[in-house]
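Table S2 (continued). Query chain:
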Amino acid sequence: MIVKGCSSIAQLQKIFIFKDLAIIQLESLVPFSYIREYQQDEIVMHEGDCLPEQLHALIAGKLEIKKTAANGKETVVRFIPAGELFAAPAIFGNGISPATVICQIESQVLTIEREALLKIISQSPEISLRILEVFNQRLQQLHNTVHGLISERAIVRLVRLIQYYRESDGTHLQTEGDCLNIRLPLYQIARSIGITYEECVRMFHKIKGIVIYKRGGTIIVQDWDKLELVIQELLS
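Corresponding output:
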């Protein structure tokens, strides 16, 4: 980790909750905000760490959030793209990191002191609504994940995951089909949907001809309608 010092207004503007905030308000946050740079695979925080009272946001790069069960099994909870918040308990909860945060690529993390943030919120209450929006989406995602692990077959969870990352990260066209912008290695997919690596390989074989998986985590969907039909047939 490299501490770069105070942030700039341009860096603060990259955070979703500060969208449209007046320049004069952003200027008041600069002395209380800090930038830290992390290398690929570097750990930002461990599950169970005590966190200072700060807002944490990613302004460049991508973070992987994972939890470890009592039996040592790791599960990827979500990925954090640039512009989003993470580590909510640092400012709204008990100050204990609920998960381990790892950089997938070189990343920049911005932190803001809690008191400075609360002062800005008192001046612009819409910021608090944006924060609630972010964490409401996280709760909904968690609810869907738990429901899926309990009641849905593994193949359904896999298809739902692919559809989720189409919506969250987008796609681009290739000659073979519609390619997810995010790379999802098999081990990450397996952890995200609660199956083994070997099961994950078998699931992709079941949807061969609809989805292409390439080494390194490239996923290409050849027909989104047929992929949705896989779910409908299993649920009917």
